[in-house]
Amino acid sequence: METTSVLLHSKTIPFSFTISHNNSRKFSFRHSNKQFQSRLSNNNFLFGESLKPIKNQAELPFSLYQSSTSLKSTRTHLLSPPKCSYSGSASTDGSQNHPFLKLFKNLSLDKLKATLLQLTPIDIIKWSGILSIAIAATKWTVNLVLNPFFWMYFSWTWLFWPWFVAISLAVYGLYCFYKHSIGEASIFEQIAIVTSVFTWLTLVPPAHFNGYLQGWPFVFFFVYHYFFFFNVSVRKRLYGDYYARPHDPKWDLHPPRWSRLLFCVGVMIGHWLAAFEGPELHLIPGGWSNVGIWILILATLLMQYNSTFYLAKYSEKVVVPIAVVQFGPYRWVRHPIYSSTMLLFATYFLALRAPLSLLFVVAVCLMYYAQKAKMEEGLMIETFGEKYLEYMGKVRYKFIPLVY
């Protein structure tokens, strides 16, 4: 079989041709690993002629196939041709349809000039103002972030009390209090009421006057929670849940609404006055000078717990007493639960070094609790008679031993 091979190489792109003068003339073409096969329709093959449709494949004078052997054996150039890949129409369309490239597809200098020429003086002033504000805000932010004094006070304790959090918590606490007033508050909502109140008592006032928080406000925020949940924890211990049991409503003794409102307002004002009167938080001494404060905190918690425990032990459904309690703190004062509350407030004000505010809040508590204690003692005398009168003769002081 007579075969003539011709190998042509381009300096730019390697092509390989092989022509066979036999019954089936063959033509191979290689371009960067892209393989094509075709059959030409004319025995007198010329490179300038157009291709015609072929009816019979046996009449094909040429065949196009890959000639890797010819390419390997007849390559004459010294440098290997660059291996270029050819992307099809699908990838080209994908790049043209890319959303990021579409922004630059229609961008031209003429359009930019036309847009700038359409700007009015008002537009220029407006965009210049926006750009100036953006630059100023960026400069202020960078200077603030790089300022060491900012990071000195920007701690997690300062993040605890931002105003929008405190106000949001107060609004939610009022909503939960409304649900509690109509008897529909859940346990979580009751906790939210207490937390919102204690936030505005112990955290917000000193944070407002100092600009940050540290030390005693955080301690008493948790101490207040622990103190006022003793009653709930006792109910949980006795009944396995937090819900009050039905009882005789005559034991639900409450002073008039105006008196309760004045008491709440007075306690709130007292805490704000303490934050205003006391020195800055970082000036309050630490170390051994605060040992007495911790002793008072422990005494307050023990008095509240023992008072609640003994009262619940000798009461039915926690509220209705079945005997005159004369044990524990009841040996010293007749109303130790109220005494422990006043002691808690007094300890907080002593920790903040605010003696005048201490006298104010003690006066508010004495006025309110004296009214409430009078109502309770009248009901106790009505229920237990001589037994309670005998107890009153034995324990002469209502709230403060040897004082009142």
Automatic annotation (TrEMBL):
GO terms for biological process: phospholipid biosynthetic process. Keywords: Lipid biosynthesis, Lipid metabolism, Membrane, Phospholipid biosynthesis, Phospholipid metabolism, Transmembrane, Transmembrane helix. InterPro entries: Phopholipid_MeTrfase. The chain crosses the membrane at residues 130-154, 160-178, 190-209, 215-234, 258-276, 282-302, 345-370. GO terms for molecular function: transferase activity. It is a multi-pass membrane protein. The keyword Lipid metabolism applies. The keyword Nucleus does not apply. It is found in: Endomembrane system. Signal peptide: none annotated. One of its GO terms (cellular component) is endomembrane system. PANTHER family: PROTEIN C-TERMINAL S-ISOPRENYLCYSTEINE CARBOXYL O-METHYLTRANSFERASE, PROTEIN-S ISOPRENYLCYSTEINE O-METHYLTRANSFERASE. This is Phospholipid methyltransferase.
